[in-house]
Give the backbone structure.
Amino acid sequence: MSQLILDIKNLTVNFRVYGGYLKVLNEVNFSVSQGEKVGLVGETGCGKTTTMKTVMGILPQPPGKIAQGEIFFQGKNVLTMKKSEIEKMRQTGISMIFQDPTAALNPVFTIGQQLYDVVQHSQSSDDGQSRLSAHEVSIRALQDVSLPDPKRILDNYPLQLSGGMRQRVCIALAIARAKQLLIADEPGTSLDVTIQDQILRLLNQIAAEKQMAIILISHSLGVIREWTNRVYVMYAGSIVEESTTEELFSHPLHPYTRALMDCVPKLTGGGTAEGIPGRIPDYFNPPTGCRFHPRCPHAFALCSEKKPALYHVNDTHQVACYLYQEVKQ
Amino acid sequence: MNAVLEVKKLKKYFSTTKGVVKAVNDVSFSITPGETLGLVGESGSGKSTVAYTVMGLYQPSGGQILFQGQDVAISHHKRKRILKKELQIVFQDPGSSLNPRQTIENILALPIRLHDRDYKKGIAEKVQEILSLVELPVEYMEKYPRSLGGGEKQMVAIARALATNPSLIVLDEPTSALDVSIQAKIIHKLIEIQQEKNLGYLFITHDLSLMRNIAHRVAIMYLGRIVETAPAQQFFETPYHPYTRMLISSIPVVSSEEEKLKPGKIPSMGEIPSPVNMPAGCVFHPRCVDRMPICDQEEPINFEIKPGHWVKCHLWSPNK
């Protein structure tokens, strides 16, 4: 197995609200090796983005509070890093692409100004290169994301570009300097399927060229199946299943994963599923034990008592469900 | 069966400072009672403009909209109340289509008070009846939209459309802002209601795999034109138009059986161009993999390649 670059251990994050805490992340374990394409899938509000924001060090604190856990990026604990070290990590280590490219770009600056800033800031630490070369690096970054006529785009404002082009600019911003890990938070969700296809193909190609690892966050199982090697399924702040992509889609185990897959409309037809009963739990007072048990058709007494740990079904497949543990009593 | 809605050569142009935008150009389709027509296209293809024009929110620039045989191509203000009762719409974002300062009861009571003049039971009972139709608890009557989840809000919006007992509902991307598990619930309910009440649905969406499962017929729109129309099953098994094939092959799917249905991997290229500067000839030719010399010269005609399957492409045109 190749070297781990990101390792999240037992991460628990709460949000302080009036009258108590929202217990959002509940002992999340997550790891990424070098050059890997990892998917993180789950419904809205299950904690996908919170996890990644904590990794990036951009979780607003307060109201956020890291109750326990460790995050190692290349062996260093991110949570105990100094501010300058975190900055260094963001310059050369990790970068993130957000769902909505319109909101991620500043509307009052040209694409050029925003790219120069990123390029110069991440270079200031090592070699003092001049403005001219920032211009060259920016043009190369725009070429990397297959944008036509990069010189003209540098002078454009975000509103002069289409949604797909803006997302390409965001990718260019993220990879302007070589990085080891790219977190793509729903990069195609706000775009059309044809444009989403182009963006994901581009990300894949860039990652292969630059030997970057990618974490692809999505609520779409189809996107995850086509563009990742390994998947984590998240429900209500916990990882409920982890497996290689192929195995997850051929043998989904966790009742939540299976229910979610049934809900996806299939191209082969066959009508629609009835959906998962109930709704995502209230984080103020989450269900005890396995957080999925109130909606689970297979729940039994133990499920509401103790949170199931991730259990190895085989070398590449883990599931947090008592149904698959021998201790089932 | 007689069509509940028939749209013939509908045109809607907008004039802007940069020129005339031909948002909808010669669009024709029909919907029979109990049928779902899926109108699919990328953003900017004009599908919502079609919906709004059918609803009378826009005055059409040309063409006919026949509702139960009667021409209704007039603006919303001039439409008779009885007609508004028959045609209802559900918008994409329930957060902004429900009044945040009204309780669910008031939201649902308004259409009943406006359209149902001779109700014998009280309005409250009527509201309860509608709520139970979409399986929402009666306690929700006192709630405000903000305290409901996205899926529940959309259910209220659907209940509001059903309150007038319409014969056609326009669904403008009703589930695209929601999670799949909630989407499945809503779609399931919509189909149940349709079968019960023999409703016609004009379902507007960009999600082709959803259409495979609920639409009886599918129409693909590109830059204000319908480029292919076919019964749903046939549409996915033998797509003809290169744009349809590109769309189907870019859908991310969850199983290998579905993968086999895709017409090979056609890499999607380019983006939908600005409707101010439409390409000459076939509007799709700059992105088309099967482009021929004629494509940028002449606009293709709509040709019935199989019974009920219409394609607008030079590749399949009879006089090629």
Q: What stands out?
A: Chain A touches chain B through 42 residues (CB under 8 Å). The CA atoms of residues 123 and 129 of chain A lie 7 Å apart. Residues 193-210 of chain A form the longest helix (18 residues). The domain at 4-93+179-324 of chain A is CATH 3.40.50.300 (Rossmann fold).
